[in-house]
């Protein structure tokens, strides 16, 4: 519940050590497009504290389902990447995939209106590659410093311990960058019917590097071969009562029957030169890349064909970290990705223990050597070898600079906290998506939003309506009519 402060000045936001916070909306970056600097302690403290707020289930994606399978390469993309898993046609790489809801607890229903996690662990010959995404190509925010705040709005009110629409819509109405994802969430695709009948996306912008050191930017897509199927709002309400675990049951039973689900694995590729000239920030997680300008390139097929035999050991203890990329795959200045690179492995060390990579489901299938020793759940890795580097002992692990990525030129960047909304259009793509929908799809979108937004305070409703109106006049007017609201004469809203 959001309480209004009467006749009081706003309190000063500080760190846990009492140090005043000058900017809680923008991370500290080298240049307007990043990357994020590790010296941004405020962001680090927020994310590290956030990772430790719940014991023992995951903070997000707590309820999930998983299965094993393989990725089979069908097309040559060696001109883009030197990653060895792509170096032969028909090459198969073992994988483990975990699907999940985002906001609910372990006992929550599978039919909630919520994004779905789509995390893929590929056990390659050069280490594990974790592609940790969702069933949507975008997200609600574009800066990781806001992630704990956003997830708090999707969880329970800290006083009443119930979900509170005021928290959710208050944040969204003050964060117009969320509008594109909100439009997807309340559309017909907001509640996937099963995990098998939805797409998956890496969502972030990543990089690919070929054997000549040439870098391109890329996005990863998994397109379901089962077809898209979704639940209506009424169907979802009924399903939550009849079978709250329906998605888990469906995935497991389909694999047991030999009906192995599969997805087309595709990429979009953008050159560094194109990224410099494109009118929007290509590293912005709230934006999609036009398929007309950057068409999907087929790579292979992902198939799931083996169920876990112990849910806790293999699904609950599976750990995914966007920091795990293999040679030939790299990061980008995407601010959300940069935050997740640090935050996810930190969460796994807290939740599972220091040596979570030694658990069988997370263990690389290729040889691996390092100088990490001891800690919770250590399996005695390393034997009598030294636990330091450099050392003069022959046969110990040594670095190989051939695996270094080529330098990334970010120009003469000035380190500052850049307003991520300045120069960003948060409305056009959401409006484009609305206008692509049929009349029936638009009607259901409006009804879904109204049924949720009507539970929020009127001042929040009025603030949020402006965002819908700015995306498309009809979009905003239809929602306003249902809520019996009058649109202000002058559109626009001040956000912080």
TrEMBL record:
Enzyme class: oxidoreductase
Keyword tags: Heme, Hydrogen peroxide, Iron, Metal-binding, Oxidoreductase, Peroxidase
SUPFAM superfamilies attached to this UniProt entry: Heme-dependent catalase-like
Single GO MF descriptor: catalase activity
UniProt similarity note: Belongs to the catalase family.
Enzyme Commission identifier(s): 1.11.1.6
GO BP annotation list: hydrogen peroxide catabolic process; response to hydrogen peroxide
Known cofactor(s): heme
Compositionally biased intervals (Polar residues): 11-29
Catalytic reaction(s) noted: 2 H2O2 = O2 + 2 H2O
Species: Poriferisphaera corsica
Binding site residues for heme: 344
Annotated region described as Disordered, given as residue ranges: 1-30
SMART domains registered for this protein in UniProt: Catalase
Any single Gene Ontology cellular-component annotation: cytoplasm
Domain Catalase core: 14-397
Active-site residue list: 61, 134
Protein name from the UniProt record: catalase
């Amino acid at each position: 519940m959001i309480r209004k402060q009467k006749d009081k000045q706003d309190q000063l936001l500080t760190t846990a050590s009492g140090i005043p916070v000058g900017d809680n909306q923008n991370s500290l970056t080298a240049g307007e497009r990043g990357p994020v600097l590790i010296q941004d302690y405020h962001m680090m403290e927020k994310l590290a504290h956030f990772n430790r707020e719940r014991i023992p289930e995951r903070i997000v994606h707590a309820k999930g389902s998983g299965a094993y399978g393989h990725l089979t390469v069908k097309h040559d993309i060696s001109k883009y990447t030197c990653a060895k898993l792509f170096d032969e046609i028909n090459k198969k790489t073992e994988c483990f995939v975990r699907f999940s809801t985002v906001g609910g607890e372990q006992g929550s229903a599978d039919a909630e209106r919520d994004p779905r996690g789509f995390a893929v662990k590929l056990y390659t010959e050069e280490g594990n590659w974790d592609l940790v995404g969702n069933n949507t190509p975008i997200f609600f925010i574009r800066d990781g410093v806001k992630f704990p705040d956003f997830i708090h709005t999707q969880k329970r009110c800290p006083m009443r311990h119930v979900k509170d629409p005021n928290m959710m819509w208050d944040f969204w109405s003050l964060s117009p960058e969320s509008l594109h994802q909100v439009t997807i969430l309340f559309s017909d695709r907001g509640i996937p019917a099963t995990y098998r009948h939805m797409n998956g996306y890496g969502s972030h912008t990543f990089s690919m590097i070929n054997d000549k050191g040439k870098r391109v930017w890329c996005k990863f897509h998994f397109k379901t071969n089962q077809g898209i199927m979704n639940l209506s709002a009424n169907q979802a309400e009924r399903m939550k009562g009849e079978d709250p675990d329906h998605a888990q049951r469906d995935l497991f039973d389909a694999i047991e029957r030999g009906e192995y689900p599969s997805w087309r694995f595709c990429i979009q590729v953008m050159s560094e030169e194109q990224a410099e000239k494109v009118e929007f920030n290509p590293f912005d997680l709230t934006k999609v890349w036009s398929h007309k300008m950057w068409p999907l390139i087929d790579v292979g097929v992902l198939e799931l064909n083996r169920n876990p035999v112990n849910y806790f050991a293999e699904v609950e203890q599976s750990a995914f970290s966007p920091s795990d990329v293999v040679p030939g795959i790299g990061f980008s200045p995407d601010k959300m990705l940069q935050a997740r690179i640090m935050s996810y492995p930190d969460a796994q060390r807290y939740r599972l223990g220091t040596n979570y990579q030694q658990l069988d489901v997370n263990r690389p299938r290729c040889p691996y050597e390092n100088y990490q020793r001891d800690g919770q759940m250590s399996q005695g890795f390393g034997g009598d070898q030294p636990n330091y580097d450099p050392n003069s002992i022959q046969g110990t692990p040594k670095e190989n600079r051939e695996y270094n990525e080529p330098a990334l030129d970010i120009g003469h960047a000035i380190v500052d906290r850049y307003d991520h909304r300045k120069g960003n259009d948060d409305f056009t793509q959401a409006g484009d998506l609305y206008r692509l929908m049929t009349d029936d799809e638009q009607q259901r979108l409006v009804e879904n939003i109204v049924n949720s937004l009507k539970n929020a305070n009127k001042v929040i409703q009025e603030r949020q309506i402006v965002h819908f109106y700015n995306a498309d006049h009809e979009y905003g007017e239809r929602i306003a009519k249902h809520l019996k609201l009058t649109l202000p004469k002058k559109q626009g809203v001040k956000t912080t």
